[in-house]
Structures are given as C-alpha cells and as structure tokens.
Write a structure and sequence with these properties.
Helix content: 55-70%
Protein name: MarR family winged helix-turn-helix transcriptional regulator
Organism: Nocardioides ginsengisoli
Largest sheet: 3 strands, antiparallel
Radius of gyration: 17 Å
InterPro entries: WH-like_DNA-bd_sf, WH_DNA-bd_sf
Distance between the termini: 34 Å
CATH superfamily: Winged helix-like DNA-binding domain superfamily/Winged helix DNA-binding domain
C-alpha cells in the first residue's frame, strides 16, 4: 500500500480515473465524451434553451453547442418548448450505456470490494458530501 495521502488527493484521483475510463468506454461505442456528458446530464431533466451553454459547459466544455447539435441530428435530444430534452431514443441510449460500458467500469473499479465494503464506502462519501453542504434535492 502507498503512503497515506489526504482525502482530497484520493477523491480527485478517483474522479479523474472514473471520468477518463467511462469516457473511453463510451467513446468506443461511437459517442464522443462531450456527447456522453450532455446525454448524462439531460437524463436528469431538461435544460432551458437559453442556458444550455452555461449549464452544460461543465459536462462538455467548449463543445457544448456542437455536442447538442450532433445529438439532435442523431435523434437523441430535442428542443421541446424552451428546453433541450432527451428524446425516447436518448433515454434508451443512456440506459444502454449505463447498463453496458459504464457499468463495466464501475464493476472493474469495485471488484476488490465486498458488498459491505462498497456500502460503507458509498455511505461515507455521502456523509462527507453532506458535511460540505451537498443537498440531494438541489444537487442532482
């Protein structure tokens, strides 16, 4: 085992590794990293059209507009009223990716943990997030 490192180091490292490996797994299916991140965010609900770039930029960087246009062309997102939302095909694509390549990364990441260790880890991370102000109703 390596020398003890602070919580922030492990959280940053884990976040980076998970992001990279999920993006690689999703890109192998033909969807760009930006496209996956936009789909994943829109799976939580629509985004007001005027705020798409602002709200989705953390998920897709400067490629937001291009990613949304590409997903719209592919029939995965649509403009509905004043919002950008997933279509039924978009929801199906997110589920397919979550159940396939994304789940494979999660399984690889946690394969050395038994169920109790996994539950303790997730519970502890949630407690840390709550201690820092995370509120489930407004943060997801």
């Amino acid at each position: 085992m390596t020398a003890p490192r602070p919580l922030g180091y492990w959280l940053t490292t884990l976040g980076r590794l998970l992001d990279e490996q999920v993006a690689d797994a999703v890109e192998a299916t033909g969807l760009s990293r930006a496209g996956w991140q936009v789909l994943s965010r829109l799976a939580q609900g629509g985004v007001v059209h005027d705020r798409v770039a602002e709200l989705l930029a953390p998920f897709a960087g400067s490629d937001v507009e291009d990613a949304v246009r590409g997903l719209e062309k592919d029939g995965l997102v649509e403009h509905q009223g004043n919002e950008v939302r997933l279509t039924a095909a978009g929801h199906a694509r997110v589920a397919e990716l979550q159940d396939g390549p994304v789940q494979a990364v999660v399984e690889r990441a946690t394969e050395d943990l038994d169920q109790q260790e996994y539950d303790v880890l997730v519970g502890a991370l949630e407690k840390v997030a709550r201690s820092l102000g995370w509120l489930e109703s407004v943060s997801d």
